[in-house]
Amino acid sequence: MSLFPKIGRFSHILCGFMQKNSYLCIAKINQQAMTKKKILFINQEVTPYVADNNLSLMGYELSKVMQELGHEIRTFMPKWGTINERRGQLHEVQRLSGMNLIIDDTDHPLIIKVANIPSSRVAVYFIDNEDYFSKRRMTTNEVGEDYPDNGERAIFFARGVLETVKKLRWVPDVIHCQGWMSAVVPLYVKTAYADEPSYANTKVVTSLFTNTHENDLGTKFKQCLPFRDAKPELLAAYKDNFNIEELTKLAIDYSDGIILAEPDINKNLLKYATKKGLPMLEYMEDFADAYEEFYDKI
Fold first, then answer.
1. 6-15, 64-73, 74-83, 212-221: which has the minimum mean pLDDT?
2. Quick one: pLDDT at residue 212?
3. Are 232 and 226 in contact (CB under 8 A)?
4. What is the arithmetic mean of pLDDT over 280-298?
5. Average pLDDT score over residue span 263-267
């Protein structure tokens, strides 16, 4: 009996096997492509533009690793007055600048700058304004006193980021907020910007860090916060004297997921977040895969 028929049958089976596996490989590739996300990182601090600490290092590392994993990212932070623009090679983005944001019945020009972090492909957009950022330090002045309008600065920063992303015509799947300066963002995304095409289906994640800033956000914060559908009545459940803990509760209330970014989180905030029943990711040093899975989960 000739061996050729057997070889022919084997070739047919082999071709079928290879074809089936090709389809499986293509399906797997397509599935992986579908899970890639557009992630907007809104950071209070990003190294190397400020001194290294857990918050600033995570601001950089998280953007870098998610970009390396194939996700499309945008990263924002305030342009603190301590940032050396020449050394950091910041330059203004004229097409994004020029808008005025009204805070407490006063117009504040929005200036957008951008720079690329050395030794990486991560671009950082900076929210700038002469009144709130470019002539001031981060949280306290030169003698260690809190700026009395820190709350208004956070409001300007949040609205500045959200308006700029709209101008970029970029639609994030996930917004990840890190640091108290970004804590107003969840409220605005879920209320004032809820009907905007850029944010209609966006999920918001808030990372909790160990609070080092305990003072209040200024006497005008609560009256300046309402904007569009972020109505004053939504703030009735919160104390009139907003401090960082109260602000973090506001962020938790309007987030879709919570990440514990450090091991020793304020117990009151941890209890508050747990009672909300939101998806929560515990602290872990090897964060890349866990964060990526968490984005998929929410």
1. 6-15
2. 59
3. yes
4. 94
5. 90
